[in-house]
Design goal:
With 326 residues, chain A is α+β, with helices and mostly antiparallel strands. Chain A is 32% helix and 20% strand. The chains are: A alpha+beta (326), B alpha+beta (153).
C-alpha cells in the first residue's frame, strides 16, 4: 500500500512570508494545486522535510493588466484561464491549452504556475517506490542507470506541460521571487534541455506571475495534443501555434512550440524564419513539418512508440499551420 | 494540526496530520465512506467531492488546504430521500460495479448546477475526468439527461 509520508507544513499568508520560509528552510518543496506534487510525494520521488503550501496567498491569484503586459497570478487555476472570456479572445492558444490539461477536476485544482513547473515524466520514473526499487531505480531518482538509453548519463524524461508551449508562442516571461528580491525571466530561458534539472528555478525561488506581452494579443492560436485517453491524460506529443496573416494573406507572425517530445518545451524558430512574409504553400507546409519532426526527439519514455509520437507532431503542425495561415 | 471542515452542512473539527489526503480524512476520520479511492493519482475521479463549490479529486488534496472549507460529498446530495439525479441513475441502471458512481454523481451534479439543460456532448465533457470500466458510459449519460429533463418538469 502506498502511504503519504509526513512533512512539516508551512502556510505563508503573503509572498514576503513565503520568501522568508524559502530562505530559512533548505529541504523544502512548494505545494500549490497539488495535482502533480501529491502523487510524487506518495511515490517518494521527493522527500522534503518541509512542504510550503502557497495556495492560501490571495495576491497570487487572478489576471491583471500592466502597462505593456497582462499578468496572470501563478495560482490562477487552469479552469479559470480556459474559461476566461478575455483570455479566450486575445490569447486563444493559451485558453485552448489550459482547457486540454487532464480532466475537469484536475483543471479546477491545477494552477498555471504548477503546470509550468510540472516535473518531467518517464515510464521508469513516475512509479511507486516499490516498482522503481524492483528495477534498480533510474538516473533521475535514486539510481545511476537510464533504462531509456542504457549506458547514457543523460535523462530523457519528457516535459509534459500543456500551457508552457502555448506561453512560449506568446513570448511570455515569468516573475520569480527569491530571498534577494524579484527577477523576470523570459520563459524560453527558463527551461533546460535536461530531464533532471528541468528548469532554472532554485530551491529557494517561486514563480509569482506570468507576464504575457500585449504585442501578442489577438494572435490566432491552436493547441493540439495526442494522448492515450483523450479525457484525462498527459500529452505524449503536443503542438502550440500562434500567428496571423496580413491583408494580402501573407504570414505576418508565426510561432510553433512543441511539448512532450523533449525534456523541455521548445520553440521551432526555424519555422518562423521560413514562413514570415510568405503565403503558405503545400511545399512550405511540408518543409515546416520536416523542421518540427527534426526538433522532436521523443524517446521510449511512455508506452506509446517514438515514431508515432514524432509522426503526430508532423500531423499537428500541418493541421495547425493550415488552420491559422489559410 | 487541527482542521475545521463543514461537510454536508455539518461542522467538524479533526486533529490530523496536515498532509493527510482529504479522501482519507473523509473515509477514516469522519466515517463518510461514500467517496471512493480508485487510482489514487487523479486519473479516475472516483474520489470527486465539492470543495467550496468546485469539483476536485479528494485524493490529491492535502487536508491542510481545506481548513475552513465547505465540502459536499456524495452523501450530501440526498436529503433523507434520493435526489432526482440519484433516482435517474437507478432507473437507468447506470451503476454496474458502482465504484465510479459517487464521483459520477458529483460531476453530474456540478454540471446540472451550472447548466440545467445540457446536451449529450456537454454531459460527456463534464464527466470526462471520471472513468467507468463497466458501463461504457451510455447509461450514465442517459441518466444525467433524464435527471436534467426531470429538473425542467
Amino acid at each position: 500500500m502506498i502511504t503519504m509520508p509526513q512533512f512539516r507544513v508551512l502556510q505563508p499568508e503573503n509572498v514576503s512570508q513565503a520568501v522568508e520560509f524559502l530562505a530559512k528552510h533548505k529541504n523544502l518543496r512548494v505545494l500549490a494545486g497539488g495535482s502533480d506534487l501529491v502523487v510524487n510525494l506518495r511515490n517518494k520521488l521527493f522527500t522534503p522535510e518541509y512542504v510550503l503550501d502557497i495556495k492560501g496567498i490571495k495576491d497570487l491569484q487572478g489576471i491583471k493588466e500592466n502597462q505593456d503586459h497582462f499578468s496572470i497570478g501563478t495560482l490562477t487555476t487552469l479552469t479559470e484561464i480556459s474559461q476566461n472570456p478575455f483570455i479566450k479572445e486575445i490569447y486563444p492558444v493559451l485558453a485552448k491549452a489550459a482547457g486540454l490539461v487532464a480532466g475537469p477536476n484536475i483543471r479546477n485544482m491545477g494552477t498555471i504556475g504548477g503546470n509550468i513547473c510540472l516535473d518531467t515524466r518517464c515510464y521508469w520514473y513516475n512509479q511507486s517506490y516499490f516498482w522503481r526499487k524492483s528495477c534498480n531505480f533510474c538516473l533521475k531518482k535514486d539510481g545511476d542507470i537510464c533504462h531509456v538509453a542504457p549506458g547514457g548519463k543523460y535523462c530523457w524524461a519528457a516535459y509534459s506541460g500543456d500551457t508552457a508551449p502555448a506561453l512560449l508562442t506568446l513570448d511570455a516571461s515569468i516573475k520569480i521571487a527569491n530571498p534577494k528580491g524579484e527577477k523576470t525571466l523570459a520563459l524560453k530561458d527558463f527551461f533546460v534541455m535536461d530531464g533532471i534539472k528541468k528548469y532554472n528555478l532554485e530551491s529557494n525561488e517561486i514563480i509569482t506571475e506570468i507576464l504575457i506581452p500585449k504585442a501578442s494579443a489577438g494572435l490566432q492560436g491552436v493547441y493540439k495534443k495526442f494522448r492515450i485517453r483523450d479525457s484525462v491524460d498527459y500529452p505524449l506529443a503536443g503542438v502550440a501555434i500562434a500567428g496571423k496573416v496580413d491583408k494580402e494573406g501573407n504570414c505576418q507572425k508565426i510561432s510553433v512550440a512543441l511539448t512532450a517530445v523533449n525534456p523541455a518545451p521548445v520553440l521551432v524558430t526555424e519555422i518562423t524564419d521560413l514562413l514570415v512574409g510568405k503565403k503558405l504553400t503545400d511545399d512550405l507546409v511540408e518543409k515546416s513539418v520536416e523542421l518540427a519532426r527534426k526538433t522532436a526527439k521523443p524517446m521510449k519514455t511512455t508506452l506509446s512508440t517514438m515514431p508515432y509520437r514524432r509522426h503526430m507532431i508532423g500531423v499537428f503542425v500541418k493541421q495547425g499551420l493550415e488552420e491559422i495561415l489559410k | 494540526m487541527s482542521v475545521q471542515l463543514n461537510i454536508n452542512n455539518k461542522d467538524y473539527v479533526v486533529e490530523v496530520a496536515p498532509m493527510k489526503r482529504l479522501l482519507d480524512v473523509l473515509r477514516e476520520d469522519i466515517g463518510l465512506t461514500g467517496t471512493k479511492e480508485g487510482c489514487g493519482e487523479g486519473e479516475c475521479g472516483a474520489c470527486s467531492v465539492f470543495i467550496d463549490g468546485s469539483v476536485v479529486n479528494s485524493c490529491l488534496v492535502p487536508v491542510c488546504q481545506t481548513n475552513g472549507s465547505k465540502i459536499t460529498t456524495v452523501e450530501g446530495l440526498s436529503n433523507n430521500e434520493l435526489s432526482k439525479l440519484q433516482q435517474a441513475f437507478i432507473d437507468c441502471n447506470a451503476a454496474q460495479c458502482g465504484i465510479c458512481i459517487p464521483g459520477m454523481l458529483i460531476a453530474a451534479q456540478a454540471l446540472l448546477d451550472l447548466n440545467p439543460n445540457p446536451s449529450r456532448g456537454e454531459i460527456r465533457e463534464a464527466i470526462a475526468g471520471n472513468l467507468c470500466r463497466c458501463t461504457g458510459y451510455m447509461k450514465i449519460v442517459d441518466a444525467i439527461e433524464i435527471a436534467a429533463t426531470a429538473n425542467k418538469g
